[in-house]
Amino acid sequence: MSSPLRIAVLASGRGSNFAALLAARERGELSADFVLLASDKPDAAALQLARMAGVPTLLLEPHDYAERRDYDAALFERIAASKPDVLVLAGFMRIIDGDALKPWVGRMINIHPSLLPKYRGLHTHRRALKAGDTEHGASVHYVTAELDGGPVIAQTVLPIEAGDDENTLATKLLPLEHQLLAAVVSLIADDRLALTDNGIAFDSEPLRKPLRWHDGKLTR
Asked: HAMAP family per the record (predicted)?
């Protein structure tokens, strides 16, 4: 893009993935303007992180709305007012109403801690261990109305070692999540990714399978 990518971020918790995006920009690896950090939780550390970084914030609490769809409509109306090019769900722990997200399909991505399509939803580390998997990982995907079911852009893979538990897996995976998300957002900022009617296009070519983060770079 000729100008920095305008990014709005949605987060419910500590904001570590948001922090990773800020750090990537500071390192010169991401051409971006963060136009909004929105949260549904008043105690989300991501809000304070955004304020410290000079990023506009929005707190909108679900209990102020009678229906989920009313909340989502209000949230996305306010997000639209910030005129982002892309929305990044970075630990946003809500299922979004399909009507609210429909205008954003192709412009909204999510980071999920599993090798999708495995383990959509919660408790992904626990489920991978219970299944006896030998590897785990994280995925960045386009958001659609199907929970964690949108087209997968890229993944990072982590071997599961003897003695691993939920905490060790989460601890080892988190820095890889940060690297993966920043790399994907950088591709979007450089106009190298798009969601088309025929699926994901990467460098104007169909992406037949998710990109892989390995040795500090994304590869086919």
From this structure: PurN
95 is in an annotated binding site: yes
End-to-end CA distance of the chain: 22
Give the separation between CA 90 and CA 38, rounded to whole angstroms.
10
CATH number of the CATH domain containing 105: 3.40.50.170
Instruction: Note the pLDDT tens digit of each residue in 26-74.
Output: 999 999 999 999 999 999 999 999 999 999 999 999 999 999 999 999 9
Residue 139 burial (CB count, 10 A): 26
Host domain of residue 151: 5-219
The reply, when asked if residue 96 is annotated as ligand binding, is: yes
From the candidates 63, 112, 125, 136, give the one annotated as an active-site residue.
Answer: 112
Number of domains comprising the chain: 1
**Distance from C-alpha of 129 to C-alpha of 149, rounded to nearest angstrom:** 21
Task: Say if residue 68 carries a ligand binding annotation.
Answer: yes
Residue 178, CB half-sphere, CA atoms under 13 Å: how many? Answer: 17
Contact between residue 210 and residue 152 where contact means Cβ atoms under 8 Å apart: yes
What sections of the chain are H helices per DSSP?
Answer: 16-26, 45-52, 68-81, 98-101, 124-130, 166-189
Q: Give how far Cα 93 sits from Cα of 62, 130, 159, Å.
A: 12, 23, 26
CA distances from 211 to 2, 117, 141, 201 (A): 25, 14, 11, 11
- Is 112 an active-site residue? yes
Written as six digits, the tokens of 93 are 């722990």
Q: What is the pLDDT of residues 3-31, one digit of tens each?
A: 999 999 999 999 999 999 999 999 999 99
What single letter denotes the amino acid at residue 75?
L
